[in-house]
Amino acid sequence: MKSMFKLFIMVMVAVFGISFQAYAQMNDFDIIHSEIKEIIDADGVVALRVDWLRRPGEMALTIIYNGFLTQEGMANFYVKVNGETRDFMTLQQEMKNRAQRLRIISFHPTARQQKVNKLIELPAGTVVDSLLFRNAPYYKQFGALDIEIKFFIHGRWDGDGNNNDENYRFSFSSPISDMPRFHF
Questions:
Q1: 48 with 170: CB under 8 angstroms?
Q2: 22-70, pLDDT tens digit by residue?
Q3: b/e 155-168 (16+ beta carbons within 10 angstroms → b)
Q4: Is residue 135 within 8 Å of 84, Cβ to Cβ?
Q5: What is the pLDDT of residues 71-81, one digit of tens each?
Q6: CA angle 50–56–62, rounded 5-degree value
Q7: Pick from 100, 94, 84, 105: which is nearest to 158 by CA?
Q8: Which of 11, 47, 77, 89 lies in disulfide reach of 64, CB 3.0 to 4.6 Å?
Q9: Alpha-carbon distance 106 to 54, whole Å?
Q10: DSSP 70
Q11: Is-contact 159 167, C-beta < 8 A?
């Protein structure tokens, strides 16, 4: 009888461990907090959304551009996130109002399929760039998340018309102040 009880306990612990691991993996991509900021000038609207994800240290950045360059096709842009720069990225999704959108995530999420972790297929208009977020502070005590962006296409540039056509500048503060005990 004791061996049956021990076997039952071992099975329950194994089932709990597997279900906890699957639960933890599925929730890595959940959004803990989200913040949206936009700049409106004479040429249109630029909106940035930053999502702090459940997986510690990971985040997502969504860029929505609705300026005069949308008339010429998908706009390209330069982006700088706390010193990390990408000189050339292209918006990938056109919305109903002709605005263009791109979501950049800091890691490629996985799903467990047949006892193996596999990369999941990303939604349209989403790319992975882990190095862009290398200096991005996930926790409040490490400072602000500063983002600069400027759009271009066919030799024409679109910057912040409210600020002498310089880069659009956004600053976000993390809502996460507690340091977790276990990161992974």
A1: yes
A2: 444 456 778 999 999 999 999 999 999 999 998 888 999 999 999 999 9
A3: eeebbbbeeeeebb
A4: yes
A5: 999 999 999 99
A6: 15
A7: 100
A8: 47
A9: 12
A10: G
A11: yes
